[in-house]
Amino acid sequence: MMKKITVVLLVVLMAVASVFAGGSKEKSGDNSLEYIKSKGTFVLGLDDSFPPFGYRNEKNEIVGFDIDVAREVCKRLGVELVLQPIDWDAKETELATKQIDCIWNGFTVTEERKKALTFSDSYVNNAQAVVVMNKSSYKTLADLAGKTIGIQGGSSAGDAIEETASFKNSIKGVVEFNDNLMAIMDLEIGGCDAVVMDLLVAIEVAKTKDIRILDEVLAQEEYAVGFRLGEIKLAEAVNEQMKAMAADGTMAQIAIKWLGADITTIGK
Amino acid sequence: MGQVALQILQSSGQSLKIFALTLIFSLPLGFVVAAGKMSRFKIISVPVSIFIMIMRGTPLILQLIFVYFAPFYVFGFSFPRFTACIIAFVINYSAYFAEIYRGGIQSLDPGQHEAAYVLGLSKRTEFFSIKLPQVIRTVFPSIGNEVVTLVKDTALAQTIGVAELFRAAQTASARMFSVMPIFIAGLFYFIMNAVVSKAFDYFEKRMSY
To answer: Nearest by CB to A60, which of B10, B58, B65?
Structure first.
């Protein structure tokens, strides 16, 4: 009896939720930029364990490439930047319920996400790289047939595997972890045979761990800032500032500081 | 290493805040819920029973997500992150405490009530001078058990973006690409619970009346 009530309650709630989610495409026009300017804050949602794009330094401050770019963009827009760490699996809900104003954290553009979010222009190229232990014999994607792959749950690595049918069908299965570190640790103890993760993060990891990155990548992709669906004016305002930063060299400066080289693509 | 420990120590304040606020609100609220469940009136006891079943029958992590995100879709507003976290913890723990209290109250011999009645004691005197001291002594170890669990449950707060001790350890892990910070966090939980356990042992001995 009890279970039925709970189920009914949940179903009703989900129905309500889906109605609201569908209806949130502001009928009254796009006032996203005014919304940010009138409240004076721009709340950036991030997974604060994603070096070098957004993570905690030794002093427990949130730093990284995305953070520096966002800070500069906010300064130029005349709003205050608020950094809000979130659970990565809940990022879409955080955004939809206006707890945060954007997802800006090495956020990969995927077809799936484009249906639910409005993206800024992409600012850096990324790929889904396959990481294996240095001592292992794997050299190509085909070598991983029948093997277990680890990924971060809710990351675009899952989409990349899903979309690469030949690879997906050849492997034994995918294990999802809370973050990339757990996936890498599982790789180290032999729980999984390879980890699929963002190339730019993998390069960072390879500096400290005994791993290597396969030459073949799963998917070429791009990072961009995610906004609520239909918030085009806000996205364009952010684009404009990022392009201006690319033009005056600020973007390159920040890229060299965090990524070692200017690999940004916006305004080029 | 010291740097990491310091970082974790700083965020343990947030965990302790969740811990303390949850206890402050849920310990008394548990009494209200227990009274509701034991009520002679079905209109009170049935909804309270359903509340307890939902709270004990669904994961705390789900309740956190529900309290934080659901109001937006239903009413168009949300509680602040930390408030939502405290609400979820308080309602969850009050359900557990209520069942512990109820067990304690119902374990009393009905003969005591009859004796108090015969002696002409008021209901108030009967409850506060005779029943309550016994109930507290009976439920104390079970409460201690829940409190120890609460210390560890605070780690769930990060689900809705409340940066507590365990989250700090995980972000430090991500930066260093090492699990050491997570083990240090374990040590912190252990120390906190050692203090809690010792405190409960102490009071239990004091209560051997």
So the answer is: B10
